[in-house]
Amino acid sequence: MANCEFINNKGNFKLKNPENNSYMYFPIANEAGVMSSITPTLNGDCKMGQNTFLLAPVSSEDLHNNRSSRNFWIYIDGMGAWSATGVSAAQQAEIFSGDKEETDVEAGIMWHKITRKSKKFGVKSEITSFVPATDEKIELMKVTITNISNETKKITSTVAIPLYCRSADNIRDHRHVTSLLNRVETTEYGVIVNPTLTFDERGHKKNTVVYGVVAATENGGKPISFCPIVEEFIGEGGSFEMPKSVLLNEEFKIKPNEKLEGYEAIGAIRFEDVVIEPNSSKSYIVAIGFGDSKCDFDSVVVNDLNETGFYKLFEDTKTYWDKKINISYETKDKRFDNWMYWVNFQPMLRRIYGCSFLPHHDYGKGGRGWRDLWQDCLALIAMDPRDVRGMLLDNFGGIRFDGTNATIIGTKQGEFIADRNNITRVWMDHGAWPFLTTNLYIEQTGDIEFLLEKQSYFKDLQVERGTEKDTLWDLSQGNKILTENSKEYNGTILEHLLVQHLTAFYDVGEHNNLKLHGADWNDGLDMAEEKGESVAFSTLYGGNLESIAELLKVLRDEKKIKNVELAEELLILLTGDDEIYNRVDEKQKVLKDYCYKCRHNIKGKVIKLNCDELIADIQGKAKWLKEHIQKNEWITNREGYSWYNGYYDNNARRVEGDGESGTRMILTGQVFSIMSNTATEEQVESIIKAADKYLYDKSIGGYRLNTNFNEIKTDFGRMFGFAYGHKENGAVFSHMAIMYANALYQRGFVHEGFKVVDTLYSHCNNFDVSRIYPGVPEYINEKGRGMYNYLTGSASWLILTVLTEMFGVKGEMGNLAFDPKILLKQFDDENKASIEMNFAERMLKIEYINEGIKEYGDYSVNQIYMNGEEYKFDGKPVICRNVITSLDENIKHTIKVVLK
């Protein structure tokens, strides 16, 4: 980072002049539901959901358009007004002049501190903001004003935080009318807003949320007056950047315990004048937030609005999140280690914010999608798997009996909601993710019996994989599939996985690859519903089928389970051979027969199927898929480069290869053909050469998602309407780039896998180009700017890649295995590289020692020491789970792995 530097080993960083960079924001939130974003000038918003915004909602463009930001003003006697956040018209005008104020931001996990110095006014402000990691629904900030001049200064301090207090829908829809709902009340410490009703998509309802701003001096001193109405605060002709009441230092006339109605509100709070001597300071503590009544804000005043309470909450919050992030790394590149600390945190942010509620993530109304449920669990399995079993079990309740799944996810774990708008949408990749996550869980824990747990199936109007409606179904019947005698049916997790994969296997287009439907992982491929095919994800489903067969072998051989229970209807999908598989019409007929039999309900009859028969059938399907794709989808272009075609468009035409306006290549098909072992080793080498030729661009962070098709391809997807180099159309899309790295590492192409990760990391860490705080963004645009930071599934995949592939620390049926793929240049000056992590509910520090100073490929694990004592292993370097679980769970244990 050119002017952004880490200051410890926990990801804390500093950045000078942060407001010189546009579109930057920082997340501060808690698990009680408070979700805030904050910029270097304290813009951003604060909310608890789509219908409860305390501060006005902001999208990325609002960060420079919106004047409605958090502010703290001081009026200096004899000099005039100065904004501690830099948001005054005069200060903004000086940004590009030689008189710009000195600023720097320092931040860590869930806290943000901005410091501002003004030589002109002879003062400095330091504003620390965070959301406590408690059940309190507040955001706190401490404002410290320091006299850095040689003269005594008399100041008048004013908190000024505009209060929106309504649904995001009302930012334009009935903005004024909803202000008429406001009931504003002043207390001894602040301004409370309790709207009478809510106007949003739920209808006109009685409001139950109280919003407010309360403030005090560092020792709990009360304000003296208030100006809670916006139009009175700014004055005629004024604005939030030029408020007349502050610039003219007008007296605030509203006292505590007064009530006002029907106006836009602001938490404008005036404190008694104070005199600050040179090199002395005065502090104020401000809380904004949500409550069930104004009494909740009284508690905030007592507990938090004093220096002792503030700092205790601040330190407790830092400790809380540090314990949550229980993976850390030590390599030669300390910036990489710190950057990964932020990547470790990103899946936690997505569990809080969902895929919405940060400025770039301005779509949807909160919550997570189906993929998010499973991919966020990848990181959780690596960090803290204790609650994962129940989470996974609940998530399986979203699968339909036709192999598709619910797309509206409720706020509670395991809650899935029928789409009342009857919008049919099937993403063909959805059936593949649950197995990847479940397989990781089983490998990490050894809990193979999880496959035999039972769960219900989701039921709604949508049937036959999104092609038909069940007119017999009504919401009053509930959203669980029933048997013929109207009882809820529960099948094993193994059965759920088979339903997803077997239905997909038969759901093919005219080239006998799996249908694309509404899209696959790439949501931009949404215009090939009728004839589109995803070869890319066909390879993933095939690889998953092979892995399911391997798990069945473990059940059979180690758990002595000879038969498994399955719903009778599945027999339709478990019969067949290559003669049927080779014929598209026959496969479609099998699927139609199955879907018809489970259209409204199922028989409820369970049969016992021999494991050997089931394994043989699944392996046969997997083998057919691999051979079919190898035979038909491996392409070579005019320039002699070869790779896998990944798609067919809505005119049933092959998408990749030589196009009229140049080479057409998409990274996705290469990733999954490598990861699923569909591609041979020689083919992987060819894919790497092609990807380096057509997709690699170091100046924007590495591997683009696709080449430029130079066409608005309306028979394939909306992504081709985007400008090339942005989002799904040719940007470096972190998710797929990191999965490419993961696939390469898995197949032993370690130097190539490292190149993917290192190029992306190095670009993100080059602040002058990426313009983002630490972490991996969703994508990098054509100018090299990181976009949609924080809320991205790529973080989970990067954690998984670094942990299980780069460091090679992974579970093997619950045992701890070591297969390091660390390059020589990654070892530090003492030839060490280490990782701290949680495994089997024990904190471990695993330290690799490269005694021979060898490159990857030349070293192997020679010795293992646990807490100083040698652990003897036979052949493969694996520590048995029971050895790990016998360790004291209250302390950290050191495992040294000697490489020679």
Structure description:
This is Cellobiose phosphorylase. Residues 486-565, 613-806 form the Glycosyl hydrolase 94 catalytic domain. It holds the Pfam family Glyco_hydro_94. The chain has 900 residues and is α+β, with helices and mostly antiparallel strands. The protein has 4 domains: 4-324, Distorted Sandwich (Beta-galactosidase, Chain A, domain 5), CATH 2.70.98.40; 327-364 and 634-806, Glycosyltransferase (Alpha/alpha barrel); 368-515 and 535-632, no CATH class; 809-899, Maltose phosphorylase, domain 3 (Sandwich), CATH 2.60.420. The protein is 29% helix and 24% strand. The protein contains 23 helices and 50 strands. The strands form 15 sheets. The protein has an 11-stranded antiparallel β-sheet with strand order 1-2-8-9-10-11-22-17-14-13-19, covered by helices on one side. A hairpin with a 5-residue loop joins strand 33 and strand 34. The radius of gyration is 29 Å and the shape is globular. The chain starts with a strand and ends with a strand. The mean pLDDT is 96.
